[in-house]
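Help! Submission page says 'invalid entity' but I think these are all valid:
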Amino acid sequence: MRLRKLLTVAIAAGALVAGFAVAPAQAATEVKMILWPGPEGEAMQKVVDAYNAGQGKKDGVVVKQVLLSRDNTFAKEAALMKAKSSEYDIYFTASYLVGQHAPYLSEIKGVNDMLYLKASIDGLKVNKKQMALPLDTSLHFMYYRTDLVSSLSSAANTAKYKQISKTVLGKELSPNTDPETWSWDDALATAAFFTQKYNPDSPTKYGYALPAKNLLYNTMIWNDVLWGLGGNWYKNGAPNLNTASGKAAIDVYRTIYTKELTSPDSSQWEYAETNAALTSGNAMMALQWNAAYSELSKTGSTSGKVGIAAPPGKGQRTHVHALAVGLNKFSKKQAAAQKWMKYLATVPAMKNYAAAGGVPSMPEILNTMVSTNASFANIITYAGKYGYSESAGAREFDIYAKLAEVLSPAWVGQKTADEVASVADAALKSLRK
Amino acid sequence: MIRQRKDRVSAFVLAAPLLLFLSVLVVWPIYLGIKTALSRDLLSEFEITPAGLDNFRTVIAAPDFWSALRFTIIFAVVVTIVEGLLGFGLALIFDRKFPGKRTLFSMVLIPIMIAPSLMAVMYRLILNENIGVIPGVLQKFGWEFSIFDQRYVFFTLVTLDAIQYTSFAFLLVYAALQNIPQEIYESAAIDGARYRQVIWRITLPILKPALAIIAMLRLIDSFRTFDTIYILTGGGPGISTQTIGIYIYKTAFITGDFGLASAASVTLVLLLAPLMPKIIKQFRLDIK
């Protein structure tokens, strides 16, 4: 009996020792990071895989990327943040949101600002503290069909162009075949020329694809029109939309919709529908996000025939923002998450990101990887030359959403610019408090 | 005396799991909702501070809240009527024998089995003017239409809701129709009643309780409509298609004002609560 007891204890002790012997010295810490699905999430997965297979092993860190829905990632994060959740260690954020997210993020130290586009890195600072690390730089291009714009220069088309511009805009304009120098009048006249309602010979049904849905990201695009016409949200701290430039910018969208230069359906269009209008050959031009370049340059009617220009206007301006990742203040794995963030801030990591379809905010990479994505060269030029951000602080996201709500009825002709401009100013005033 | 006490104790013990369940899943969230409604609770501000009735004052003074409520009521009433009528009509058709009835019956029920958000995404694809299957086919026959034109968007939303939920009304009416004794119809036939008279004088009065239940369930359900409209229109243009659910969601998760969103929810409950006894009485629901 005693022998049996001794034997049992010996076997148990042996198993315990063996167990310790085969167990690793220290298990890797899992860091959970939120991103959204789409090109950014797909590209980031490649970076995550590379880290987990290499540097992550040295750091003792395993990164797990969680992709939430594209439409509601920020809503889910808002709930997590307000609950002071530690479930995720790294949040997805953006320069237009970082002011709202900052109370729930830890400062990221040791970031080399010189590696990044100035607009991108500075847009993620709150009270001079770096609250997030830039990933993609987003801005807008005026996409157009190169084959159609070049056809404008013929004598027959010039005469027709003048007549159509007189009918639609009340001004006789001559064709401008260099979209880089377009005013909004040029853009509208060209859109009218390529709309079958005014020109039955037009190969496209509509000249323009207008993303006019009540969606905050559509306000970001409309802002290019506002800034291009010399407007702004605020002037000397006071709301500035109920002005000549504010109303003119509203009227540009209103003209496109009410003159039927775009599909009536575009009152509910956003990014995907705008791309579909262009690639299907139904529309000739659109102001759209730089991320669309890969799709437009390789798909459908725009394949090999898509040109890029700066947004029209006297002072051609484009909205610029950076998508980013920030460290959850309530994460219980701060040290491990910092190690991953440190890796993410390196040139090799971001080169990997660019090769997988991302648009990193590092000029060095954008310059050297133009062969990967031809629009990279334009991003550096336009972000530096025309880039613009409202930097409206903690309520910026909120303001974009409110303006979409207030302005979209005028964009689609339900209301006039006069009716909505004063309401927009009142909203801007209350949100600036 | 002792027995009565024992009965009370065992009743409490038996009800305890349900009471616990209700406390955790109903009472506690309601308490938190009211507490949040009485607080200044913004995403952009880390600290939560008491706000008294400020949020309620803001909600009551907000035109957007009342506009969303008005749209929701109109939408709920219209879709309930449309779906009730279509469901009734379909049930009458399926109450007869015809070839392929089983297959068609299953097909009619398919939309209700699909998640509303999935249906909305599907609509966005198949109804898209540029890449959608349906506009593509119609264009081949020379019929072009813009289903999301801002002038018709309300009718579009009603139609899409009807496509999904008519089958619900149909199913309940059909089930009720099966319970009507055949002898009644036979008597009516002997008395020389026409089809319209049979429907009007016999079928409809017998189906009245079932129709009332359908109306109540569809009203309540369509009052909560969120997914389809949010995905298709985002509540726009402007706030022209914004339901109360979208208003509350946007206030909480885009504006980041959880206090105001909770106040809107509580206000909505306070506005609707007095109607419940009337609804129950109207529909003669026998709740004991």
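Support: the input was valid. A stray whitespace character was the problem, and the output above is from the cleaned input. Chain B has one domain: 38-282.
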